[in-house]
Amino acid sequence: MSRQSVSIVIGLLASVVIAVVAYAQDAAELTRTFDAYNAAAKAGNVEKMLSLFTAKQRKDIRKEIAKKEERDYFLLIWQAQIPESYEVQHVTWAKNRQGATLYLLVQLPAMPVLERPRMRMEEAIFFKKENSKWKIDSILPIGDPDNIKRPKDLTYDPDDANLESRGAISGRIIKTEFKPDYTLVILRVMDEECAIFLPAKEVLEKAGVPLDEFSPWNIHEFQGYPHKSDKLKFFATEGRLIEED
Fold first, then answer.
1. Alpha helices in 44-178, H assignment, sequence order
2. What is the tens place of the pLDDT at every residue in 168-215?
3. Is the predicted pLDDT of residue 74 greater than 50, yes or no?
4. What angle do helix axes 55-64 and 68-79 make, rounded to 10 degrees?
5. Could you tell me which residue, 11 or 71, shows the higher pLDDT?
6. Is the dihedral of CA 140, 142, 143, 145 positive or negative?
7. How far apart are the first and last CA of the chain?
8. pLDDT digits over 134-172, tens only?
């Protein structure tokens, strides 16, 4: 290998290392921001909480908590979401690196005032970068992982497609399995897991469909036909990857 080739390889490796370090630093800042938000909620410091939101969210929330009783209710709701602990499941990044989504599995304490038992919850925390700082744009409770609704079975029979009712479904991909005669995608839609049936791998490849779009954690929209009797099954004829803004 020539010196020039070695230099190119070293340069590429250095770029990869720098990118990995940058992603790790940003991911750490996301969790620090979330921790700071929870600490402020626990202390009842609404102004500190608001400072960790994006400018648009701060403006919108202030309109909703103009009165003391509205402010107190806002604080009660957000204090109820303070986790005892949490586990980072995944982080996705916007193409422009100005947005990110932090997927968490949190352990929530019992909350008698809301008649809520101690429970686990999956959450998505959406962030946007403002003035070089990560700010919370929204917090979405996804569902209790211990109470996910699933199809009765994963049996594939194209005759079960309701061809008189075309529709669409979108969600996060849990897993993809390439079977001999079809492709099975398990799609998470809030507190439900849906079985999406697609053509076989070879058919998708011939059609020019990028198979990596069916990787876990990708957000995907499918169009096609629902199952005649099981609402958690769907026969897709087309689809598209939904990328982070």
1. 46-51, 55-64, 68-79
2. 999 999 999 999 999 999 999 999 999 999 999 999 999 999 999 999
3. yes
4. 120
5. 71
6. negative
7. 42
8. 999 999 999 999 999 999 999 999 999 999 999 999 999
Residue 178 three-state SS: strand
At 217, is the secondary structure helix, strand, or coil? Answer: coil
What are the angstrom distances between the C-alpha of 198 and each of 50, 161, 224?
44, 12, 10
Beta bridge partner(s), residue 236: 224
The dihedral sign for the CA sequence 80, 88, 222, 234: negative
Q: Does an H or E element contain 37, and which? A: helix 3-43
Residues 6+ apart with CB under 8 A from 118: 107, 108, 109, 110
Query: What is the Cα 132 distance to its own chain's centre?
Result: 23
- Cβ partners under 8 Å of residue 129, min gap 6: 97, 98, 99, 135
Using the structure block, give the residue that is written with the tokens 């202390």. Answer: 43
Residue 243 has pLDDT above 90, yes or no: no
Beta strands in 117-230 (DSSP E): 119-130, 133-143, 167-178, 183-189, 192-198, 219-226
Whether the Cβ atoms of residue 95 and residue 245 lie closer than 8 Å to each other: no
